Amino acid sequence: MTTVTNLILKAAAAAENGEEDPGGAVGGCSGTSSSSSRRRSTLDLDLGNGSQVVYVARFLGYQESWDYFHYLNKHIPWTRPTIRVFGRSSVQPRDVCYVASEGLPDLAYSGYQPHAHSWDEFPPLKDILEAVHSALPGSCFNSLLLNRYKGGSDYVSWHADDEKLYGPTHGIASVSFGCEREFLLKRKPGKNFRGKKRSEGKRAREQDRVAEQHSFTLKHGSLLVMRGYTQRDWLHSVPKRAKAQSTRINLTFRLVPSHAG
Questions:
Q1: Is 80 annotated as a binding residue?
Q2: Spatial separation of the C-alpha atoms in residues 145 and 100, rounded to whole Å
Q3: Topology of the domain covering 4-193+201-254
Q4: What is the pLDDT of residues 119-174, one digit of tens each?
């Protein structure tokens, strides 16, 4: 799926690196090293109706990101739980772990309630959280769902993180390490673009379709933020990809109100 979003991201990455990406990164994934002196390239995408996505391709340094990757891959107590979707039980197609501040309501999804680990068990997570807070003034995340995709057959299907636990306009900050993976966004059925009626005619409908779908390549050390009503109005996924032959680790930071539930 090629959209205007893809083209903007490719141009931004090329401008940031000052050259074409030659690939050949560790683990068989493409990427180039980046130094702290390079400017962060940021895409700010207004999805309409109070929904917004912000993408920072080089949020953390290249080697720093690999250091985090290796720590997380080795020290996080990963589990691959059995979940229940549409009345059927199946093994979740990725590894997960949950970290949260003390005293928060329990997280539960698809019939699964993960154990909430303490931030103090994994000090590097607190360092990453501090970097996220510094990059997003006014943010205050207190929970973290970690995901590990061990290859291209691991994925997450179309969904929205719209659990009542988080509230209607919660933000999600997503930091990625390791193999690059495609991240897709599409508008939920029945949600009109910027509150307008659907266009008439074949060409107009095609324009609507493109405006309602976006694709991001989440790079090693990148940050993607979903804000506002994105979870109410949009679905997202990380699809299977045969070419993704190595591991990706993703951290999704969220705010759980203490009065939730």
A1: no
A2: 9
A3: Jelly Rolls (2.60.120)
A4: 999 999 999 999 999 999 999 999 999 999 999 999 998 988 876 777 766 799 99
- Cα 34 → chain centroid: 21
133 is in an annotated binding site: no
From the CB of residue 143, how many other CB atoms can be counted at a distance below 10 Å? Answer: 20
Q: How far is it, in rounded angstroms, from Cα 87 to Cα 90? A: 10
- Distance in angstroms (rounded) separating the CA atoms of residues 18 and 196: 40
Question: Does 39 appear as a known binding residue?
Answer: no
122 known member of a binding site: no
- In the block, tokens 């694709």 appear at 215
Give the chain's radius of gyration (CA, Å): 18
Structural domain boundaries in the chain: 4-193+201-254
Question: Bridge partners of 216?
Answer: 183
Residue bearing tokens 């090293």? 33
pTM for this structure? Answer: 0.79
